[in-house]
User: What shape does this take?
Amino acid sequence: MLTRRDFLKLSGAGMLAALLAEHAFPAHAEGTAMLGRVAYSSIRLYSAPHRDAGRLGTFRFDTLLEVSEQLPGGEWDDTNRTWYRIGEQGYVHSGGVQPVDNVLNRALAEIPAGGLIGEVTVPWTESWWAINRRPFAGPKLYYATSHYIEETVIDERDGSLWYKAYDHLYPAYYYVRPEHVRILASEELFPLSAHVPPEDKYIEVRLDSQLVLAFEGDELVFSARTATGKNEFFTPSGWFRTFHKRPTAHMVGGDGSTTFYDLAGVPWNTYITDNGISFHGTFWHNDYGAPRSHGCINLRPQDALWIYRWTMPQVPPGQHYILEESQGTFVRVLETTQPVPRRRMR
Assistant: This one.
């Protein structure tokens, strides 16, 4: 294992790339294509993996792409050099393509009291604010979003099964097709490194290098690329604690048509400030390594789940959230990668 001192000695893109090597796509059966969903309003198709190459066309929002190959491209100093080859059509930059899967699930006839967490396993699915007599459309739910499933209900119109999910923002209930949602087993949410004393766990967020690093004592146990706040939506630097956590959140914010967002099912939220700055999973982009958020610490959903499970406090089963003021794992958000003395935290 690397220690914090070892990590600070690392230099050169090659060494960092090896350390932070990532598998962007979900596991898939041999011989089947990797799938990507266009997460931006549009992305360009190029004749080569470079933005100076010839432009061959455009893919629009929510288009599903069959990805034949993941490869490096662009300039050597690009923050995200990952490109995708789309069969024989050409190449697209990975930043605007969400890696997805398309897996159907068996419905649970009964949900235990207190509810369970489910995640969407298809590129997207529709939700409804009501079923039975007069249903009306709810938000579109995307791959890897998480949802608090409280009950299985039957639509009286046709006898079909639906999951009833809770939305904390309004608050209200929405309904989603069970075959599009995988219910997580309890062990998938068990705390990580529970044997490690809480005071020995520590996170660094490095804004200039866009890295999240987790340490147990002086041992580096986790690293991930991130996308933090951009321009006026900056991520604050300083000392924080992970005092508030939710497995799912409905986030709405921004000002005006260019910055407004309405994001249902944001997964694995670990908050560090009272005004909502958090680590969380991201499905509206796949572009890590440069600032681009409204202040939050954007991570791939699987990385956000790791942080959610590893940090304190833990959300008890059957509970929608936990909030413990002045508690939680210490986080330091740094402007620089220069070595910073770490004080003992008790």
Q: What stands out?
A: Confidence is low (pLDDT under 50) at residues 11-21. The two ends are 24 Å apart (CA to CA). The first strand starts at residue 34 and ends at 38. Residues 23-100 form a domain with the SH3 type barrels. fold (CATH 2.30.30).
